[in-house]
Structure formats: C-alpha cells, structure tokens
Amino acid sequence: MGINLLIESLEKLLKLHKSLLELALKKTGVLEAEDIQALTQLLKEEQAHILAIEKIEAERSKAVAAFSSTKRTLGELLDELPPEKQEIVIRISEELRNVIARIQKQNELNQGLISQSLKFISFSRSLVEPPQDDYNYGPNETGIPGKSLFSSKA
C-alpha cells in the first residue's frame, strides 16, 4: 500500500508541476503584453498550485516514511521496491526533475522580463519627472558667512 501511495503522490506532483509550467509559460506572454490584471490572476493561480504541491509533498514524505523509520531519500528506497515499481518511480521522478528544470528556466526568463520592465519604468519616470534639486546644506552653499538670509529689521 505504501508503494502505491508513493507512486500516486509522485504522479500528483508531476501533474501539478506540469500545470505550474503552463502557468509560467502563460506568465511570459502576459508580461510581454504588460497585462497587469491577467498577471494578478496568474499569480493567484500559481499560489494555489504551490499550496497544493506543498500538501502533496507532505503526503509523499509520509509515504516514504512508511518504508523506514529513518529519514531516507527516494533514491535510497528504490532498492527496496519491486522491479516494476522501481521503473515507475524512476520514470516519474525523472520526468518531475525535467519539468522542475523547465519551470526554473521559465521563471528565470520571467524574472528577466520583470527586471527589464522595472528598468524601463524607472527610465521613463526619469524622463517625465523633473530632476529634484538637492536641498541639503553643505560647504558649497552660496552666501556670505555671518550674513543672514532674513532681515532682522523687518
């Protein structure tokens, strides 16, 4: 039973990560289109996926813990699985690693797009807004020492 629960949780994780990858790909298009409302919606969906992944990951950890009282990795448990189950677990875990790597690459691209957008916004603001004068007092201030800017006779 623990083996089936492990495989089931790995399949759920794979499905959720594939869906997360689709969201990351959509996010790239939304960032390029500069659609803030769509981006907000995608971020909400992404957060829901992350919460679901955390829940399934906890299930997977419990399934792994059912095999052994000591904390071990999935790779260490493979030797204890029947050969047909080993193949399934290896296939799913490799596919999961590939999907996670693709998500990381896509997120790096999205991060670059966000960074470029922020730089463009900052540059645009600097063109539109007048430069701020420096109102700090310092040694280069003009004026005659000892002479006040205000007339004391007034």
Describe the overall structure.
It is a single chain. The protein is mainly alpha-helical and 154 residues long. The protein has a single domain, classed as Methane Monooxygenase Hydroxylase, Chain G, domain 1 (Up-down Bundle), CATH 1.20.58. Helix content is 73%, strand content 0%. The protein contains 4 helices and no strands. The protein has helices spanning 2-33, 36-65, 74-77, 83-128. The longest helix is centred in the last third of the chain and has 46 residues, at 83-128. It is elongated and about 95 Å long. Residues 131-154 are annotated as: Disordered. Keywords: Bacterial flagellum biogenesis, Cell projection, Cilium, Flagellum. This is Flagellar protein FlgN. InterPro entries: FlgN-like, FlgN-like_sf. Pfam families: FlgN.
Number of strands: 0
- CATH 2nd-level architecture: Up-down Bundle
Biggest sheet descriptor:
none
Tell me the fraction of residues in β-strands, as a range. under 5%
Average predicted confidence as pLDDT: 83
How far apart are the termini? 95 Å
Helical percent range? Answer: over 70%
Count of the separate structural domains: 1
Q: Predict the CATH topology.
A: Methane Monooxygenase Hydroxylase, Chain G, domain 1
Structural class: mainly alpha
Keywords:
Methane Monooxygenase Hydroxylase, Chain G, domain 1; FlgN-like_sf; cell projection; flagellum; mainly alpha; FlgN-like; 154 residues; cilium
Summarize the structure.
With 154 residues, this protein is mainly α. The chain has four helices and no strands. The termini are far apart.
